[in-house]
Amino acid sequence: MIICRFNEDRLGVVQGDHVIDVTCVLNSLPKYTYPLPSYDVLIANLPSLRPVLERAAESGPRFLTQEVKFKSPVANPGKIMAAPVNYTEHLAEARDQSELNHGRSIEEIQNIGLFLKATSSLHGQAEGIKLAQSERRTDHELELVVVIGKTGRNVSRDDAAAYIAGYTIGLDMTIRGPEERSMRKSVDTYSIVGPWLVTSDEINDPSNLDMSLHVNGELRQKANTKELVMNVGALLEFATSFYSVHPGDLLFTGTPAGVGPVKVGDTITAAIDQIGSLSIQVT
Fold this sequence. Notes:
Layout: E1 2-6, E2 10-15, E3 18-21, H1 41-44, H2 46-56, E4 62-64, E5 70-71, E6 80-82, H3 88-96, H4 98-101, H5 109-112, E7 115-117, E8 122-123, E9 138-140, E10 142-148, E11 164-172, E12 174-175, H6 181-184, E13 191-199, E14 210-215, E15 218-224, H7 232-240, E16 250-252, E17 260-261, E18 267-272, E19 276-281
Parallel strand pairs: 6-16, 8-13
Antiparallel strand pairs: 1-2, 1-5, 1-13, 2-3, 3-4, 6-7, 9-12, 9-17, 10-11, 10-16, 11-13, 14-15, 14-18, 18-19
């Protein structure tokens, strides 16, 4: 199933080139009181809602995908986790280019671990990327993003699939400079996710997905997730050896080589096999 959030927080199911409005399904969510859950309640209840979503999609209002404005398919992630230098060729380019490393030693992911991005940086396709620190370079970084489906701690890589709700496309936008990664990547609108969530049962093998990114039609990044240093299962095992994950948490799995700067007016188009494509404006 392909699930999206569109226009004014409408819930949709994507079928072909149509979005079916199934917002009525939200009435089936449990009622919560203060303190509200610190996880995404839709993702937490997705398994039990699946039959309801399927029935609602049979008769809900239909819209063409090009007519709607896609927001992040996950509204309230408790945290955004991200993997640095998780493709060998990107590690090499980060070490070779002073514009990327700013004189710092770039270590392997196994040694430096993951980092966290502010949830306030989350945006969807329709909302655009708003460049900050305009005198400095902002780069695109294409990534496969994992959406966590249930709470877990010390999850083994062999059991990882049971904790994944689905997958989506991510752009880990990055200001280059001397500050820590988490600060330079937590700018408002610098965590782009979308245009929709594809449930895990629709993805044959997350470790064998072609991916590409174009800027104004020019190919910048092209890779396959089989080139990940740490694959999805290994990343989830690594992350949960330090902290718990919860429904709706997002895991950016790392970017391949070819990162480069963007400027106001650019159009970024990102695609991942079996998920689809995302197109977003830089403003």
